[in-house]
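The protein record filed here.
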Amino acid sequence: MSGRAEYNSDMIVADIVNANPDASAVLASFGLPCSSCAVAWTETLREGLAPHGLDASLVLTKLNRDAPRGEGQASRMDEE
C-alpha cells in the first residue's frame, strides 16, 4: 500500500464522492446511487450501507483500489 490516505466507513458519503468523483461509479457498481442521494451529506458510509446489507470492508476495498482519495477528476481540476 502507498502512503496515501484511505477511505473508512466513518466518512460521510458525500466526502468520499468529493475526494474522487470516480467513487460514484464504484458505489453505483454496488447498486448505490450515492452521488444523487439526499442523505449522502449526512450519513457515513457505514450508515448508508447498512440498509442495503452490504459489507463495508468489500466496498472500502474496491473504493481504495479503484477510486483512491486525491486522484481522479477532482485532483485534475485542482491542477488547473
Remarks:
- Residues 13-70 form one domain.
- Helices lie at 13-19, 23-28, 45-49, 56-66, 73-78.
- Residues 5 and 72 are 14 Å apart (CA to CA).
